[in-house]
Amino acid sequence: MASSTAGSTTTTSTTTTTKESSNKIDVVSLIVLVSYPKHYRIFAEKELVHEIMPNAADSAFVWFGNYSAEKDEHPPVYMDVIARMMRLGYNIQASTGGGGNPAIGDNMSTHTSHYILIRKRD
Questions:
Q1: Which residue ranges have biased composition labelled Low complexity (predicted)?
Q2: DSSP secondary structure string, 29-70?
């Protein structure tokens, strides 16, 4: 912007710095067979699972790298996993639950829950 006043010229320039925001959302899916508190699966990037459960056995990573507590020698119960995730900044975004599915051999006394947990990071 230039302005002229009685023979003098003043020039003003404005510089705007744009900071790119790299907001990242971590999404974890936890499916639990509630009747057996150590029978659950975590669907997430392996790095996230190791952050949540640093002592997870490598043999427990099955199905394209997802974690199966049933394959781990010493898994924590699923409620301890959810509590740890909450301390790490995750929030439960959605959850569902239901009885067993006799079509795949589950008896109706089993109950499954599915949690979707997210964490926003900058």
A1: 1-20
A2: EEEEETTSTT-EEEES-HHHHHHH-TT--GGGEETTTEEEGG
The pairing of beta strand 2-5 with beta strand 8-11: antiparallel
Distance CA 69, CA 26 (A): 20
Are 116 and 92 contacting, i.e. CB atoms less than 8 angstroms apart? Answer: yes
Is there a contact between 31 and 112 (Cβ–Cβ < 8 Å)? yes
pLDDT digits (tens, 9 = 90+) for 3-55: 444 444 433 333 344 445 568 999 999 999 877 778 899 999 999 999 999 99
Stated as kind and residue range, the H or E segment containing 86 is: helix 78-87
